[in-house]
Amino acid sequence: MRKLRNIIVIILIASALWHFYGDNFKQSGIDGVYQEMSSDLEKVKQNPTVVSVVNYVSDGIQLLIDKGQEKIGDNPQTNRVIPDKPELNLPSEQSFSVHNIEIGDLRSEVEQQVGQPKRSSLNEYGVEWVTYHENYYNFLMAAYNAEDQVVGLYTNQDLVTSKEGISLNSTRDSVRSLLNEPLEYLQRGLVRYQIQSKDEYDVFQMDNSFVTIFYDKHENSTVTAIQMISEELEKQRKDYFTEPSDGLKKGLEYQLFDLTNATRVNHGLSVLSWDELVRTTARDHSIDMAENNFFSHTNLAGQSPFDRMTEDNIDYRMAGENLAFGQPSSIFAHEGLMNSIGHRENKLQNDFEFLSVGVAFNEDSQPYYTENFLTK
Q: 3-21 burial string, b = 16+ CB within 10 Å, else e?
């Protein structure tokens, strides 16, 4: 910025000198200009009006420079500090690891590697997803049992290593060729649930765990995320949909928010901020859908998402809404939305600044998810 300032000053000085002394230079050269400038400077020193004008111009130049610096400094893309990716090693016990963490590791060992958690929130297994990241870089979630051992892991970033060579660049076909056949159903109690993944994910049973590998249809069906749940934790879940609670509702809301931000930094986008007032609008729409058995951006009163925001006195310059229904967790809801082009575009919209999520459950414990995006 100092070089810019110097250039501006030189241009202004040169223009002023030519305006006042150009004719003299043509007639008498440098010596004539020097003598006339010396005479004029004596007059300037005693003329308060001229001094005032000079000060005004100087202040104006500084203001322009300061404004330029302010705009550059306010650019989140310019200022964003990207932390180093950890050095990843092959897993020692399991087939997969996340950030060098494996199922069965102790929480103390995990946090020695990744630091203190950013959030803990209840998940569909009745335990907490403990979230670790550096402004959503190096993002992962871990679940622990009563002995503080890892019983669940998830990431949607390039933190995965495997003995089979599977990574976030692997294709669905290569995953299926390297691993055993994916499961066709999950058994919970006396009920068998068919897995209907639409080729968006596969579930494998291996290493005393259930490993779900998610694929991105819009990136040539390459691996986009992985979830690992120990058999111990999976057996605790009796039904496909978990009994609703206020803790689970808030957990699913914050998890969907965090997952969206972790995905945005993967795509070089800014992190969205949470807006509590907008959460009320989003949650009210989820409640409306759950209680009145419909699934639509337009409610039974004919209101659009934008009508609902206006009614709640929310000011915005642009806004968008995503809806999901029938997924047992925010992870499955998020990965499904990312495979739907319109919903994906909302999550990856460069100009959005805020996101809030509202969740509600119907009488069958099925969650309805509403994401409201906006820019103020």
A: eeeeeeeeeeeeeeeeeeb
Question: Is residue 256 within 8 Å of residue 369, measured between CB atoms?
Answer: yes
Strands (E), the chain: 96-98, 119-122, 128-134, 137-144, 150-155, 160-162, 185-188, 191-194, 201-206, 209-216, 222-230, 318-325, 354-361, 367-375
pTM of the model: 0.79
In the predicted structure, residue 249 carries a pLDDT above the cut 70: yes
- Alpha-carbon gap, residue 372 to 313, rounded angstroms: 14
Helices 48-73/2-45 angle, 10° precision: 170
The mean per-residue pLDDT over the stretch 4-25 comes to 52
pLDDT tens profile 143-155: 999 999 999 999 9
Residue matched to tokens 């969205």: 272
d(CA 90, CA 195): 30
